[in-house]
Amino acid sequence: MIKLLLADDQALVRGALAALLSLEPDLDVVAEVGRGDEVLDAVARTGPDVALLDVEMPGLDGISAAEQLHAAHPEVRILMVTTFGRPGYLRRAIDAGASGFVVKDTPARDLADAVRRVHMGLRVVDPALATETLTAGTSPLTTREREVLAAAVDGATAGAIAAQLHLSEGTVRNHLSSAIGKTGTRTRAEAVRAAERLGWL
Q: What pLDDT score was predicted for residue 8?
């Protein structure tokens, strides 16, 4: 049996995934969590072989949870399962230690097959997303530019961002200006939207 952990903040989706995967004779869902910051404890308690993680979850996003999980339990294979097939997400997830990345509209039979392949140590990536990722290229944003843009998501002022990240306002403005240039946009709001669309945030 391949033991599975499911992490998804939408209870209905999580339950449907659990029900579908449990129909497979060789798959056993041993844990379900609704937050990214619950993944490590659940893994320590239940010892799954494969963890299926959603990208967007409260507490800790799925990519950060994957990074923590890979560092603490490298023997657990990670398969990202998400609604948001954004190219930047794929690259960041692979960098974080994920072995696979599929979108939630993947047919149940294909998802079960993806779990088996990841469990065997193979890499599984949604073909359309792989093509889009290669076309989009890597994120040009530095870590600090990404942090500044992420802090600007809710329209915070340069002063508020500076206080949050312990930077000077001038440094924040420089990072925002650089991010605007790199995303080919005109305003920081547009830069935030472009970075989110590409999965760079």
A: 96
CA-based nearest residue to 195, from 182, 33, 171: 182
Tell whether pTM > 0.85: no
27/57 Cα distance (integer angstroms): 24
Task: State mean pLDDT over 113-126.
Answer: 93
> Strand 2-7 and strand 50-53: pairing?
parallel
89: buried, middle or exposed (CB in 10 Å: 19+, 13-18, 0-12)?
A: buried
Q: Looking at 14-57, which runs of residues are DSSP E strands? A: 27-33, 50-53
pLDDT digits (tens, 9 = 90+) for 138-163: 778 888 998 999 999 888 999 999 99
H/E element, 25: none
Say how far apart CA 97 and CA 86 lie, in whole Å: 17
At residue 52, the 3 state secondary structure works out as: strand
pLDDT over threshold 80, residue 196 = yes
* DSSP calls for 56-93: S-SSS-HHHHHHHHHHH-TTSEEEEEES---HHHHHHH
